Amino acid sequence: MEKKVEVEVHASSSLDDENLDISVDLIDDGLYLGNLACAHDHKTLEKLKITHILTIDLVPLPRTILDRPNLTFKYVKLADVPREDLISHLPECNDFLKQAICDNGSVLVHCYFGVSRSAAVVIGYIMEKYSLCYEDAFALVKSKRRFIGPNIGFVAQLKLFGHMGYKINKDDPRFKQFRLKMAGQKLKQIKILPQLFADLVKPDPGIIHERPDPIVYRCKKCRRIVASQNNIIPHIPKQVKIELAKKGIRPPPSKLTGLTCAENGQLLIDKLKSLACQIINEDAGASTVEEDGASPQVLDGYNEQNMVDSSIAGRDCPEVCRLMWFVEPMSWMEDVTHAPHGKLHCPKCRNKIGSFSWLMGCKCPCGQKVAPAFYLVPSKVEWSNIVQNVQITV
Known about the structure:
This protein is α+β, with helices and mostly antiparallel strands. Helices cover 28% and strands 15% of the residues.
């Protein structure tokens, strides 16, 4: 039996001059979604028997509220803009909600209006709890609180969260590309890559290390290793993407008793493989990559119709475009930590082998736009599945 709680009264004086009405709705067992006024109102919290409060806002709750006994708090600093990193906070928020409800508590999740930020967090929790895709979880939450509306950046991140199996997989190419976009925006603002994103610049694969990747990419001129298969960020050709859109192929809606989001994603990947084999001409010649001068799109970091994960990123997968090799930034690449764009030269022979662009990205000969982009030109770099016992790096 569904329960619904709606409280509509004027906010208490603790909100100073703001004339914000209290608004709160019961979304799931022990889980309420509301606004800042609700978190400030002691009588409402008592009436709803709230034991935990999760604040998603630019500022935490005031000390007068935090000092109240019998309440447990968690604060996540987040602005309601598409370029904010929501997805990295979802696992810890879900853990907080699960623990609170497991302890027979009641949780209020709130931002300022209870429309975008807090709604996105609640949707992420519902997705994981019931193994739902984003669309189903959104519909469920909206049926309880009709005016929710996560911004488009949060929506894309929630979809990525679902397709990664409700966890953060740092090795997933889609998550890597999302973080690269985040880093590119920061580099644009402060002219240098922040320490927070230092892990995005991967070690030089040409330096001797244990258990080297058996698949590598070498400079054709001097045969110096410049990338390994793990550094490749695969993409689907634009032609395949268009065909997918025409056929309407997307993860089928999951239900409480149906497939998980991860299984839905695998269904799409399987269909994509079959379709790609019919479309892609594997002998297509490589052409030059042109910088795309168009303004960068909204930071989503993920496109449902470009679903390439590590399970289909190998060299022998026909649906992955190989007209251009997009890679992660690596330590041998000069200027990538403090320049918005530039050329990539072999660290040994100095031959130009590619380029990079944090902001504009580039367009592959297949027509697919990739941004940010760190790319190696196949005519300058050769693929090899043989790793020598000794690699000498100059």
